[in-house]
Structures are given as structure tokens and as C-alpha cells.
Amino acid sequence: MSNISIYKEKLRESGLRPTRQRLKICEVLFTPEKTFHFTINDLTKIIENKLSEKISLATVYNTIHAFKKKGYLKEISINSDKSYFDTNVTEHHHFFDEDTNELIDCSNEEIDSVNIKKNITGKKIKSVEVLIKVASDNQNQN
Amino acid sequence: MSNISIYKEKLRESGLRPTRQRLKICEVLFTPEKTFHFTINDLTKIIENKLSEKISLATVYNTIHAFKKKGYLKEISINSDKSYFDTNVTEHHHFFDEDTNELIDCSNEEIDSVNIKKNITGKKIKSVEVLIKVASDNQNQN
DNA sequence: TCAACAGTTTAGAATTGTTTTAATGTGAAC
DNA sequence: GTTCACATTAAAACAATTCTAAACTGTTGA
Ligand SMILES: [Mn+2]
Ligand SMILES: [Mn+2]
Ligand SMILES: [Zn+2]
Ligand SMILES: [Zn+2]
Fold it and tell me: Keywords assigned by UniProt (chains A, B) (predicted)?
């Protein structure tokens, strides 16, 4: 039950050579039945610990950026410390749990579509996304 | 026509000593009639070029963080490169112009209030903000 | 089949934004 | 004025990310 040949094909279609490293990253990102959010650090840890593979950090960055450029990943900015990536590439909203630094999807059905009355002359809307920051009720929010 | 004594008072009320550096930063941030968005780099350039002052970078960071903590500034994350700050501390939404990297306010009257049907158990909503990315119509959006 | 080459990986260096350190300076209180 | 906690500073440290340049590898096509 390996998706490797499927990933090989997808990569070739995209003009990316199906290298060992890229196939491994495809497996980690696209085999799970549910989409998820991750940082580069998360991903390298999965590769190193769970898979006992060794892929250089530069390659992880290269690959993630290549996948993002092809539209297979989305980048999400929550705080300026680091980037989050999302294997759910549909337009959708997020909860951000400030206690755990965790992103949680909020589908479009769970938020009424945002009605924007203003527009910027000469500019086209590329995306509309809602970010809902949440935290434990009894929190010391300095 | 100087607001310095007002800023001095505000700082003292906040438990912050009204130092020369903080007063100068207050002037830059809070004297303009309109609120605005800036990065630390923007701010240091204003201080150095327009005002020919010299405030150490660490002090700029210290002061901005102190002002944020006191609620006089908001931090906005657009991309992970750098932080944006906002002298408009009310809850509001933003357009982000991908051509110019410019933030534009979108008041609550210009967006219908966001209706969220989902909630996260045990978590309280701290903020709900919409980010609308825009770009020139005829753009090469790789 | 295999030579050739463009694309890819890699370790490490460089860069950038930000934070920390530790020494020096200064506002406020007495 | 003296004192002390708070603040400023230059420089070092740090963390995320990007760049560099050399080695490697998938693919092409002779
Ligand atoms: Mn931050
Ligand atoms: Mn970025
Ligand atoms: Zn998501
Ligand atoms: Zn704003």
C-alpha cells in the first residue's frame, strides 16, 4: 500500500524530479487522511525521529517552497517567529490557540462568508481569511 | 504646540518613566492625526532621518514592546519576515497589498461582523480579525 | 547503454529580525 | 545631593531562513 508511484507521477507532472527526498516528504505530508498544519521544525522532526531519515534542512526548505509554489501547500503567518504551513490548500479560516500555539481549521461552513463593503481601486482580492485567536478562559493575558 | 507634557503624564500613569527616548517615540507614533502601520525598521528610519535622533535599536524594541504591553500598540503578523505594528489599537481588519507590502485599515463598518458557528471547548475568543490580501489585477502571481 | 547536463542535495556560511547581556546612565524619591 | 530601581546602550547571542558552491543524481538522447 504505497503511494510512491502516485507521488512520482504528480511530481513529474509538476516539472519536479521525483527524488528520494521529495518522495519521502510527500509521504509525510500527503499520505495522512486528514490535512494538518506544521512548521519546518515539526517536519524535520517527523523525518528524523519517526522515519529515521536524514534530509538536509536546506532541502526541506527547498522542497516546501517548491510545493508551495505549485499550490500543494499554503503558508500561514500567525506570529513573526516562524512560518506555519498547511496541507489544506482550500481557502479556509483558522482558530489559533494561544495556549498551545496550535492552529485549528475553521471551514467556510462554520463562518458566514465575509461581506466586504470596501474595495481598493485597481486591486484584486486574492484571499479573505479570518483568524480567531483563542485562549484558556482563565488566562493571565498580559 | 508640543504634546510632550501630555506624553509625560501618560507614561507616568502607565508606570513608565518619561525618558527622552520614550517621549521622542511617543511623538513619532501618537502625534499624527491618523493612525498608521509600521515596522521596527520604518520607525528607526523615521527617528534617524526625519528627526536626526539616535536611539539604540534595543531601546526601540524595548519601548515598542512596553507600549504594546500597555495596549498603546498592536502587533500584526502578515508574513513571517518581520512584525508590523499598528497605532490603531481598536479591533479592526486589514487589507494587505502584496505589490507594495502595505497594510490598509478596514473598519468594522466596512465588513459585516463575522459570525462564527464553531467554538473551541474551554477556550475564549480573544480576537477575530479578517485579512484580505490584494494585488494588482494584472499580476504575475507565482 | 551510458555520457552529458540540468536539476537537486548538501553542509556550512551568511543574512535578517529579534532578544539578551552586562555595563553605564538617569529619573524619582527622600 | 544621594540612592536605587529603572532605562539605555553596544555588542553579542539567537533563531529562522536563505545563500553558496561543491558533490550528486534523474533524465535524455546518441
Ligand atoms: Mn512574536
Ligand atoms: Mn515569507
Ligand atoms: Zn488550515
Ligand atoms: Zn490597522
Answer: Cytoplasm, DNA-binding, Iron, Metal-binding, Repressor, Transcription, Transcription regulation, Zinc
